[in-house]
Structure formats: C-alpha cells, structure tokens
Amino acid sequence: MTIVNAAESREIQASSSRSRLVAFVVAVSFFMQMLDATIVVTSLPQMAQSFGVQPVAMSIGLTVYMLTMAAFIPLSGWLGNRFGARNVFMAAIAIFVLASLFCGLSSTLAEFIAARAVQGFGSALMNPIGRMIVLRNAPKRDLVNAVALITWPALIAPVIGPVLGSVITTYASWHWNFFINIPIGLIGLALVWHFVPQQKEADTGKLDLLGFVLSALGLTLLLAGLESFVHGTVSAYQVVALLAVGIGLSAWAIRHFRRTDNPLLELSPFAIPTFAFSTLSAGTASRLAINAMPFLIPLFFQVGFGLDAIATGTYILVYFAGNLAMKSVTTPLLRRFGFRTILVVNGAIASASIAACAILSPATSDLAIYALLFVAGLSRSMQFTALNTLGFADITPAQRSSASTLSSMLQQFAMVLGVAVAAAVLSMSQHMRGAAALSLADFQWSFLAIGTIGMLASLRFFGLKRDAGAEVSGHSATNGR
C-alpha cells in the first residue's frame, strides 16, 4: 500500500509539474500579446511623424487591431478542434510575430494598418486557444495555479506597457516596440514545440458559417461602438446605431446557436452557475472595474496632478508591485476561504480602494498614495485570478472549447466597456462643469462610479453556493465540509 501511495504521489507531482509548465509556456505568449496591445500607445505621436500624418490618424491602427481580433475570436475554438489546439496556437504565435515585424518595418500608415490587421488575427486565435490548452492539461486540483500563471500577463502588461513603451520610444525608436515581440515570440514557439503535447481533438463537423458571421459582426460592431464613443470619432447617433446593430446581430447569433444542430459555439456553459457568474453579470461588472483602472490611473496623475510621465510611472510601478505580490498567496487564500468569500470580500476591498482614489490630491502624502495603490493592486490581482479560475471550475471536457471562446469574447467586451464607462463619467462630469478640459474633480467622480459598480458586483457573488468551485479551490476538504 505504501508503495502504491508513493507511486501515486509521484504521478500527482509529475502531473502538477506538467500542467504548470504548460501554463507557463502559454503565459509567455499571452504576455507578448498583451504587452503589444499597451506598449504601442505611447509611441503614436512619433509614429505619426514618421508616417507624415496627424497623431489622431494613428488611432485607426489600434482600432483595426481590436476589431480584427473581435471578428475572429468566435472562430478560434472551431479551428483549434479542427486542426489541433497546439498547431493553431503555434500558427497564431507565428502570425503575430511576423505581423509585428512588418509593423516595425512599416513606412506608411497604410502598411501599418495592414500589418496591425494581421496582428489582430493572430491575437484572436492566441488567447482562447491558449486557455483551451491549459484547461486540457491541468487537473482540477491544479487549476488555480495554472490559471494564475496565465492571468499574470493580463495584470502586468497593461501596467508596465506604457512605461516600457515610453522608455523604448525615448531611448531607441518606436520600431522596437514591435521588434521586441520577435524574440519573445520565437522563445514562445520553441517552448510550445517542446513542452505542449499534441492531443487528439474532438470531431468538429462542418463550420457553422452563419453562426461565425453573426457572432463576429455582432461583437465587432459592439466594440466599434464603444471604441468610437471613447475616442469621439463619430457622432452620438452613429455610436447608438453601431451598438444597436451589434446587439441585434448578437441576439440573432444566440438564437441561431440555440437552434442549430452543430453550432459554432455551444451555449451550454452558461447553464453552469460558476461559469455564468464569472463571465456574465457579476463577472462582467467586476472586470469592468478591473479594466478601468489601467486607463484611469495614468491620466489621473498626468492630468489631475499635472505630473510628467516619469513621476506617473513611479506610482504605476507601486500598483504593479501590488499585482505581483498577491500571486504567492492566491492559492492558499482560495483554499482557506473559498471562491464565494474571496469574490465578495476581496471584491469589496478592490472596489473600496478604487473609490478611495477619489480623495487623493496633490497634497496627499506619497506614502498614503503608495499604500492605496498597493492595496488596489493586491485586490485587483486576487479578483481577476479568482474570476478566471471559477469560470472553468465545473466546465466539462466537451465544453472547454466553447467555454474558452465565450470567455475570451466576454472579457474583450468587458475590457472595452470598462474604458468606455470611465471615459463616459469623465466626459459627463466635465460637461456638467462647463469646462474646456478635464480636472481633478472629473477623475474623482469617475473613481467613485467605477468603485460603486465594482462594489455592487462583489455583493452579487453572494448568489454563489458556499461551496462553489470547491473541487478546484480545495476549500471544502480543507475545512472538513
């Protein structure tokens, strides 16, 4: 019996090591993808000068990337099943790296837009397929650690990307903001080739072309409407039209998926409470608050406090440190308290820390600002990891492909929605004051609004069962229930 137990123990340890290694390999590629999405923003004025266009014209490069990514995310699960998740993931990395090279070599705006569109296609496949690979290789007992590994790029990249981009643009050139993806991508390809197993895929059947077109157009138009509102590139009527058509097409897509025999996306994951809570309603509202902060913080210190980029970067690094510091205790905390308690209590702390930013001013001591940003970073990291892990706690193997794709679609929507809501509050506050420019007061209202949304979302998690996701967190076993 002792020999059997020892053998089983070694097998469990080996399985855990493999799942962590696969998650780390996927995380490397995720980091490249998410860093690229944030690092380029700081170099847009220099790129505009290089292309001989106005800086405002460069926003189309960001928009094309986002919309291309939105259009092809719904197709990712089918491609992964049809051609093999490992093969498609490697192809996505290769496409992204090659497109990054051409972005850096672009000499005109048209060339840059074309390269960014190809980059968006690679990015659309990378995220859901990478998550699918992790889910297939991680036993439930290791899911928290595995998801924590692939979550850190989403937490870190938006924080350090603007700072790193500023340094590269200042001391090298904007081209290197794209060339930096090449070594990271090549390392990622080598790691995937050596460490990610090739697994037998399920029979996918024919491509649900109508489902793809409806879901792609629906998500793309929704994000286009939100993005247009944030940047003020079109009129209010056009924004409403984009959102209305996007909602209509999305509703049509849902109706189609429910009625067709072989849908592009199975909607059955939404019948699972843990997935529904963490991706819809409470999950979307929580992610809205999480994603608004990387947008608000740099503007808050630069516009509200009047600080330069270097001084702002110091505050951002403290926030970044809080995100990192939580990683080592995420698993023990989930095991001790369980998902429901963590999402409610930590969510309340995260929301309170966001709202508390409203009381900051240039007269506030650096120590107080550092402490608040550190706590905000800690709680943001915990909430994001808990949401991402709980979403797949009860997903069956047959549902992994659709669940991963649906989760990626909704996370992309929540990301843009968070920025849109924050921008809307800023604009509304400025309009009510009748001012020509943003001030500290506008940011204070925005922090309060985002914090309130996050607080309401955290209370919504009381709707979860006390033992929700216990098989993944180990909470019930640890507490003898």
Q: Report the structural category.
A: mainly alpha
The number of distinct structural domains comes to 3
Q: What gyration radius follows from the Cα positions, in whole Å?
A: 22 Å
In this structure, how is the largest beta sheet organized?
none
> What is the mean pLDDT?
88
Number of helix segments?
19
Q: What proportion strand?
A: under 5%
Q: Could you list the spans in which at least 5 consecutive residues all have pLDDT below 50? A: none
Number of strands: 0
CATH architecture of the largest domain: Up-down Bundle
Residue share in helices? over 70%
H-E string: HHHHHHHHHHHHHHHHHHH
What is the H level of CATH, i.e. the homologous superfamily of the largest domain? MFS general substrate transporter like domains
CATH class of the largest domain: Mainly Alpha
What's the CATH topology name of the largest domain?
A: Growth Hormone, Chain: A
Distance between the termini: 27 Å
Task: Categorize the overall geometry.
Answer: globular
